[in-house]
Amino acid sequence: MRAVDAIMESLKAEGVDVVFGIPGGANLPTYDALYDAGIRHVLCRHEQGAGHAAEGYAKATGKVGVALATSGPGATNLVTAIADAIMDSVPTVFLTGQVRTDLMGTDGFQEADITGMTLPIVKHSFQIQDPREIPQRIHEAFHIARTGRPGPVLVDIPQDLSRADIPYEPSDSVALPGYRPTTEGNVKQIRLAAKALANARRPVIYAGGGIVNANASEELVELCTSDRFPVTCTLMGLGAFPAPHEQWLGMLGMHGTRAANYAMDEADLICCIGARFDDRITGKLSEFAPRAKFIHIDIDPAEISKNVPAHIPIVGDAKAILPKLTREYRALEADSGRLDGWLERINGWKEKYPLGYEDSEDSEIKPQYMIQAIYEATGGDAIITSDVGQHQMWTAQWFHFNKPRKWINSGGLGTMGFGLPSALGAQVGKPDEPVICVAGDGSVQMCSQELATCVAENIPIKVFIMNNGYLGMVRQWQELFWDKRYSQVDMGTTPDWVKLAEAYGATGMRATKKEDLVGQMKEAIATPGPVVLDVHVTKEENCYPMIPAGQAARDMVG
Amino acid sequence: MGEPGTSEVLHLEDLEVTGGLHTGRRHILSIVVENKPGVLARIAGLFARRGFNIESLAVGTTDDPTISRVTLTVDGANHRIDQVTKQLHKLVNVIKIRDLEPEDAVARELALLKVSADESTRAQVLQVAEIFRASVVDVSKRSVTIEVTGPDDKVEALEKMLRPYGLIEMVRTGEIAVSRGRTAT
């Protein structure tokens, strides 16, 4: 069997039914095998788009996303997606073609040392050196990508080796003596954590994207509701805890709610699950949660005590640990009355500082209203992706996610251009659910070529562009912190999004009036095939509240 | 902190604090790895990203040819080393890491020193070598090459003694180490 056919068999054995990619010289053999392998291939227009599509697919389905690219520029175009996947722990496998082994290291045509240049941004990578190892390496790549803390794995396959004739043996063995993720969690530590929770008078549960990755939302709700623990989630964790819940504080961090950030500030115990005390959460580290002790539950031991020293570290899988912690906590029969004062104080903040904005008195569409309109048009039941910037923060604030895997965005790397291709991937993975990309007019242009993919493959995503003609978040920072010296943030009015959508063969629509917006959104959602809805919003609106960078939670403004 | 949120100019003195400050003890890390291509690049990259300067590095196979051992020494820098060792543990090809306390380990390195020596100085050079139990591995009309093994301070002491005669060049292997006592490193 040709090695490339063995690759296809290996992919199928891993349960892969769709891949995203672009063919080229060095992966011609792979694409020949793909021709009749029975795996769906989505032909993207740029490898970055293919990479983000694989991420969107993975985030929506929980399965491993796969992207293919050729050597050289094909592979380097994947780099942003690979970096994005490591930062947000997205289970992905990237298969790149490489020049022939006799050309490697000679600056051959379309040669790039992709394994070398991606070393700091992969969970692991394999460069194939013997074609007979391919089935096992592919199996190991999937095993590494999906277990432990998920992440991207690169498999680089030289063109000549991929043409070799090899005996194919399905492989289900892994030879990875250095890779043994801890999953169960130390029982003594869990008991200690339960006691700490029972003794805490001002506890907060702070959950992140790890809950979503672990499929542990129900277990999180169980723990939180085993008493009246207030809960906040990071940007990546939104949906892990249902937003309408009375114990819900809202998102925390730079653009989080005052209730969430003030609660963190005054807490005596913070139980962090699947989050990593990123600088967008902590603000000024030396003034972060000054009164708190920390329980830190994470599958990645390197995250524990990285930024904030943990008093009770627990390494393992949230899905395995949370039920044990809940059980231990219940057994202690703590007096819930001890939380009365704390909850009263929190509810005071919630009442005094709800999220808000000043609505227009005419037909002007406020960006916050645009997100509320999406919620109304969908009943909150849709997969929402976003790019990076103001529109992303407003979506996080105003679209009250109540289920996991409904909110797909680029948190760690902050990749503009992520929204459209990740929506494409999510829609391929979830063909029966509405998928809406909330895009900025600046960032959507970084991957807008994937509209062609959506049209060609009939992937009916709806792209709602929050169009303010600015690189809005940068403009906001220039306004607030750089004396309104608006340097290179005005994007003007090009392109004409309706015409662009139509040029691609998609449906283009424009919204300029508040009163029409919900109706137009419903119409867009009901229209078959991909739709671009260009929503003209207030040009200079700021995203509040906000912790100015490098300051403490109690210094929130707006 | 270099946040774009402040338009204040940063003073260079404020930057010094995070760069290149060497405090804390010296570390000898003994890292057991799979003998696979690219492992060393992965390890070295982690140290570079965290701002550690690797002082010496020695790599060789173990009694099992599929397993290699990397011994590297780093100066205790401003950053905490445990972040690096945790990140090292995350490398799929890394099997085991031991941060050896210098007093609990036997560390040795080998050095070759090429020294100017003619008829008038050769005897003195050889005498110095003998004191250090170093051996002569090459000799010519105007030079001798001396091989020495020992802890790094012994090598440095020999270097200091030979330098006045004219040290042409010196090559060091970098330290290797095992823990003291019966248990494996």
Give an overview of the whole structure.
The complex is a heterodimer of chains A (558) and B (185). Chain A is built from 22 helices and 18 strands. Chain A has helices at 3-13, 28-34, 47-61, 73-77, 79-87, 114-117, 134-146, 159-162, 187-199, 209-213, 217-225, 258-266, 279-282, 318-332, 340-352, 367-378, 390-398, 419-429, 450-456, 472-481, 497-504, 514-526, and strands spanning 18-21, 40-43, 65-69, 92-98, 124-127, 152-158, 203-207, 231-233, 248-251, 269-273, 293-298, 312-315, 383-386, 407-408, 435-440, 462-467, 507-511, 531-536. In chain A, the strands form three sheets. In chain A, strands 2-1-3-4-6-5 form a six-stranded parallel beta sheet, with helices on both faces. The N and C termini of chain A lie far apart (64 Å). Chain B is an alpha+beta fold. Chain B has helices spanning 12-16, 39-49, 81-90, 122-131, 152-166; strands at 27-34, 54-61, 67-74, 94-100, 105-116, 135-139, 143-150, 167-172, 176-179. In chain B, the strands form two sheets. In chain B, strands 5, 6, 7, 8 and 9 form a five-stranded antiparallel beta sheet that branches. Chain B has a four-stranded antiparallel beta sheet with strand order 2-3-1-4, with helices on one face. In chain B, strand 2 (54-61) and strand 3 (67-74) form a beta hairpin. Chain B is globular, with a radius of gyration of 21 Å. Mean pLDDT of chain B is 87; it is low at 17-22. The A-B interface holds A 115-116, 119-120, 123-125, 127, 129, 144, 176-179, 300-302, 306, 477, 481-483, 548-550 and B 1, 3-7, 33-34, 37-38, 41-42, 45, 49, 83, 86-87, 89-96.
